[in-house]
Amino acid sequence: MARTAPVPNIPAIPGMNPGVFVMGGGGAGGGSGARGGKGSKNRQGADGKSGGEDAEGGGKSACATPGKDGGGCPQHHGGSRSGAASHGDPIDVVTGRVFTAPIVDLALPGPMPLELARSYATSIRDRDIGLGYGWTHTFAWEVELRRSGAVVWTEDGLDVAFGAVERDTGVLGPHGWVLHRHEEGFALDVPDGTRRIFELDMDDPLRRRFRLTAVEDRAGNRIQLVYGKAALARIVDCVGRTIRVLTTREGRIAALEIVCPSGRVVRAARYDHDKAGRLIRVTDADGHATTYAYDDDHRLVSYRLPTGLVFHFRYDQAGRGVETWGEHESGVDPCLADDLPELLMDGATKARGIHHVKVDYGPHGYSEVVDAACVFRHFGNEHGKTDKSVANGRVFSRTYDSRGHLTSYTDALGATTRWERDLFGNETRVIDALGRETRIERLPNGDITRIIDAGGGETEISAGQNALVLKDPTGALFEVRYDGRGLPVETVAPNGRRRIYRYDDHGNAVEASDERSVLWQATYDELGRCTSLRDEGGALTRYAYSDKGLLLAIEEPGGLTSRFAYDGLGNLIEATDPGGRRTVLVRGGTGSLADARLPDGTTVRLRYDRKERLIRVHNARGETYAVELSPTGVKRRERMFDGREIRYEHDLADRVVGVTLPGGDEVLLERDLLGRIVKRTRADGSEELFEYDFRDDLIAAETAAGRVELTRNAAGWITRERQIVDGATFEVTVDRDVVGMPVRHRTSLGHSAEWRRDYAGRAFKLLLDGTDEAEVRLDAAGREIERVLSQGGRVLFRYDEAGRLVEKRVTAPRLARVAGPGEPDWVGALDPSVTVHQRLGYNASSELSVLWDARRGATRYSYDALGQLLAAVPDGARGELFAYL
């Protein structure tokens, strides 16, 4: 079977079937995931998409706004910047800042992935670092010397003051950052092990500006930045690839070009500016353009996505964002339902398009936000975060330390989680709403060495120069070994199983093997995109991409090719399978699926409210599924395609506490402060009780019929199940190996099942009650190839190069004809020892087309355009026909 995501560098392959739609885009920025690497910052990869969609309590980008930890959500997040609140496209409703989520224009995988992302903020609209006023990017870090001391400008456009930094010393700043000064300039260390190096800008007449010249990780991988006069001229990634930065006569960035070793040049992005120096157009590698417009003060007033959706912004006299919305330039957004309310929740403002919000600012950090579904009230503080947020009357509170790190979160039911932190802001102690405590021990640099859970179980992490060893609460050890670039080259599981990885010069994983054989081999292009994968059986799958990095085609073994097409945001809009079946996806301006035009010509339609929350699905038969949402987005009512309705009741934390079923019966749910269901009461008055351990795993369930108790070990694995029914007790005991796999089940009735695994031989034996035995052998892909039964019978399986089952044989040696003296071996159409012999064939869409049986002959299958079975016709017998409603 062809792989869909076999190695770290391969993006998720877009796919769908007539009932499920998986909307794909470009791959994330990649990276080894090793201790020295950094994953994609915003999980947007090479597709250039600029953010997520609707987020609870915020806007379409609320969970990716300042701090990127979802501070706009009512749900708590323990990050150091938790509490930042944004709504709409978004607007920071504490500070009034309008900004964009980071947009990735260039990404190259490697031991230290290179990713260049840009973002805009009104708070820096008077600053131009080379992309135009108000814009910044990943490598726009600078150190500026002022009378008050050193200030670090970040990639977000924030200026962070460190005060005086003496030569050969370091100063601790916010977020655990440490700024060092040395003879040539400065170095900034952050808790994830990244070091940024700054050197004096020789073109600065005041000698106060220090530009970023290198970024290093813990493994010593290095990205270098080279300047020509006052502008960035090129970037060299950690494996030596060069990104050429073309600039205008004014020194602004005009284009980014990747210069491949072969001499091929790929233009990743082009930037156009107006005469005032403002960025007005960005064109990606596939030719899709996003345009921007500003007022005279360089404030962003609108931008147009390649899909034709335009977001607008309005400001008050103080320059704060007070309104934003998105409308399709055609006036019609295919995603929106046609019966949406015409006004926002203030009852006065005409609703426009999607993600329409208005913000009113009051004194002392207070703001009030209204959108098409809800009214939010926020009480901000000096950290630019919220002390209290009110959503539809529900109150959520936070407290912080003097550095702005979250110290407590209280939900609308009064459940409080508390945090204690070290000097760098790292969590050292977490106490949940039930008073259960988790402790985290760290090295001085913040690395975790031990986690002690609420049950006293300990997880230990120890790091050597080129290895990381993890010891779980059961005492099992797992080891990862690294090369000098920080790439994992070997893993050792607690049972001794090893997996070895090999890389090319660019840090791409090209081979994986175990104790017995090579598991897969991969090749890559110059941009680090996987172009082929050869599996353990030698089957080859090939991949093709656009310049932007979007997956265009997959050629599976046997020449089976699937093709894909995308919109300007990198969202999948068309897929054609190897059999020629074509599915077309029509999307709204931000990528939400509106229509799915299936291969048989029928269409499934999905419609959304103004916050892009799904509220209606119209299937191909004209039936409708509808959902009624609360102001905060939880389901109040569902109407199924067949007309049945289910209603839901929620507590103040938006957790379901009551369900009314289609027949009118009610189910009541009682929850504890953590939201766990502790009692379920049905319409007839019967009750079900539930108990949990400190990990929130279920350990007991009780009804009038009986009780079930689960015993778990320190890792949470079930080791015993006890059932009490009508006064009788039954037990099942489970013995496990060091990786948690069951090796023996024993019952209180005297029965047992035992597994004996040979990982190196890819086989296992099953013993039932200590006598009956079956042995199973697997290939390197984990597929069963042989099953040997206790009396000598065998079941044999064979697969084609695409991984599809093509033959099955069942043999019974006791039925074999034994040749007598002087007689030949069996000759004939059917060996009597073979009791079942089947062969399977497939069509171009990998659907079963013929099943040949040695005794019954062949049965042929046909399908409609959706892959639904239409007919099964055996040789010489009456066939079966199928129809669907």
Seen as an oligomer or otherwise, the chain set is: single chain
Helix content: under 10%
Q: Report Rg.
A: 31 Å
For the report, how would you describe the main beta sheet? 67 strands, antiparallel
Strand proportion: over 45%
Low-confidence stretches: 1-77
* Number of beta strands: 74
Mean pLDDT: 88
Number of helices: 0
The shape is: globular
Q: Report how far apart the termini are.
A: 32 Å
Decide which structural class fits the backbone.
mainly beta
Region (Disordered): 28-89
Protein name: DUF6531 domain-containing protein
Organism: Sorangium cellulosum (Polyangium cellulosum)
Biased composition (Gly residues): 28-39
Q: What are its keywords?
A:
three-stranded antiparallel sheet; RHS_repeat; 67-stranded antiparallel sheet; disordered N terminus; mainly beta; T6SS_VgrG/RHS; YD; 885 residues; single chain; DUF6531 domain-containing protein
Task: Report on this structure.
The protein is mostly beta strands. Among the domains are: 188 residues, no CATH class; 123 residues, no CATH class. The chain has a 67-stranded antiparallel β-sheet that branches. The protein has a 3-stranded antiparallel β-sheet with strand order 5-6-7, with no helix packed on it. β55 and β56 form a beta hairpin. The N terminus is likely disordered.
